[in-house]
Write a structure and sequence with these properties.
0% helix; 115 residues; single chain; globular
Amino acid sequence: MSELTAGTGVAAAALPLAHEPLPADDVVIGRPTTAVHALATLGEVEVGIWEMTPGTASDVEVDEVFVVLAGHARIEFVEPALPAIEVDPGSVVRLAAGQRTVWTVTETLRKIYIA
């Protein structure tokens, strides 16, 4: 599926995604995979779906707001150091460019992101 066109929709929770292994340097525990599917570009903002299977991985974030559709994860904020958060369906989270995080996914996590 390509990007959505005006006047169309998609079942975001059921959209099939093609997973790929994470780079070995990013994996902390397990063998998590991720998938991403861009839904629309609005000016300089991208809206899409991202998914990660169970495991733990580090990341450097971009400016983003996301809404969790399915699954469960713990996000640790390494830099800057902030309290960890638990996310599950309905959680809305704001990330800032350059934040260093560690994601521990215990149930495959699917989110809609705006970045």
